[in-house]
Amino acid sequence: MNKRPRVYREGLNDTHPERYSEGLKSLASYGKSVETDSKPQFRAGVNTGANVASALKRAPFLQGVLASLPALDPFFRAGLFFLLLWAPSSTSHPSLVLSTPASAGFPETFPADLDRALQEATDRGATAGAEGLVLVGNKIVYHNAKGFLKKTPNEVPLRKDAVFDLASLTKVVVTTTSVMILVERGKIDLDEPVHTYLPEFTGFGKDAITVRQLLTHSSGLGNMSGVYFLKPGKRGYREFVWRIGLANEPGSERVYSDLGLTIAGWLVERVSGRPLDEFAEKEIFKPLGMKQTFFLPPLSKRWRCAATEKCPWRGRVLQGEVHDENAFAMGGVAGQAGLFSTAKDLALFCRMMLNGGSYDRGRILHPETVREMTRPQPLADYNRQGLGWWIQEEMGQKPGWLLSGKSYGHTGFTGTSLWLDPENDVAAILLMNAIHPNRQDADRTFLRQRFHEIIVEALVSRDR
Fold first, then answer.
1. Could you tell me if 429 and 343 are in contact, meaning their C-beta atoms sit under 8 angstroms apart?
2. Is 300 exposed, middle or buried (0-12, 13-18, 19+ CB in 10 A)?
């Protein structure tokens, strides 16, 4: 199987400098690359028979089965044992299917209403393009796209399954999920100081900052806007962070910031011993079959990427390059931004979260972990922040909420959003390239509000 080459531009190779030459050499043969296997992968000790003692503890019925077959040939018994042992222990869930709104009890006008909302947003220039997907149970009851993949230098219509720059959705899809995988494995304690894992992260008041505070925007750290102008690279960013002080006392208040999740991404890399993108590919994307989700989109897929801003700093319209300036200057892979994906791939991720951490036969997280991530964390001044995720507020206070009080979600600067309602088993995925061709004309709120209002109206109509 050919390995997809990684291409790194000059000045942006700090993420994996040792593979720069390899990526250039393999670029010419990229068109012959073979897609990675989509079969679910199971982590050793959790979903496989790699740890026999653990498997027997999970499934004591194996011993009973084998004991009831004493007369069988020893080799047959051994084969039966390993066949049962390798059966995944996670609950199997049905695969996603395309279905009609009526199958979920939604009104017949539901898709037309959403189509009109997407079209109106693009017609008025609130966004260049918009793609929406609504998941109810395992049924995709709406999926469509309107507007443009890009508008300059030439107009290209937006089609379903375009690849979008997810911006801050990276924080929850990759970084928070990765941290919690390591928490489950006993390698990270949420309430330990960050310097336990990153010894350089100390001094200037930072010694008391915990991992939990990084994920809840309560670390007391400020932002690092403007650092990208210095083109410091990943190493330079780290040296900058090691020397900064606090804007607030850790734990005193919630102030939304990229920096906490940036550091959480470095934490994942240090503890796991793997780059963040490689960790996410192996532990999240591959088990879920998210084959169109990645950092650093290869050249062969950039034409499918929704264009974002005409960046004054880089002097070009961005298509297939991360928009977030700091993530770009760090090499394109960062804890706060850099992820690209499609609506269908995100539906797989949402289904995993709504299932309590598993999808099909792959388990990413345990149900207790998902509940901890999506419950309000104990903050002094704000009670609607989960681990990474934002928790439902009173209806009407902000655009994007779903129906139940247990709904949670996140947004991204480019115009992306995910909102999940575990009580109604619904996920709403809205992807926009709202900042194309410039951020001044973007109106993300207009479509976010209407899109979710239509879903809530359908849920209310269903439950009457």
1. yes
2. middle
Residues 352-374: tens digit of each pLDDT? 999 999 998 789 999 999 999 99
pLDDT of res. 231: 65
Question: Quick one: fold of 182-266?
Answer: Methane Monooxygenase Hydroxylase; Chain G, domain 1 (1.20.58)
Buried b (16+ CB within 10 A) or exposed e, 106-139: beeebbebbeebbeebbeeebbbbbbbbbbbbbb
Predicted pLDDT of residue 41: 32
The CATH superfamily of 97-175+274-462 is DD-peptidase/beta-lactamase superfamily (3.40.710.10)
- Asked if residue 113 has pLDDT above 90, the reply is yes
Which SS3 state, helix, strand or coil, does residue 6 take?
coil
Question: Where exactly are the structural domains of the chain?
Answer: 1-34, 52-85, 97-175+274-462, 182-266
Distances (CA, A) of 293 to 114, 128, 160, 278, 281: 25, 22, 15, 12, 8
Cβ pair 400, 418 in contact under 8 A: no
Say if residue 103's pLDDT is above 80: yes
Q: What is the dihedral of CA 314, 319, 325, 330, to 10 degrees?
A: -100
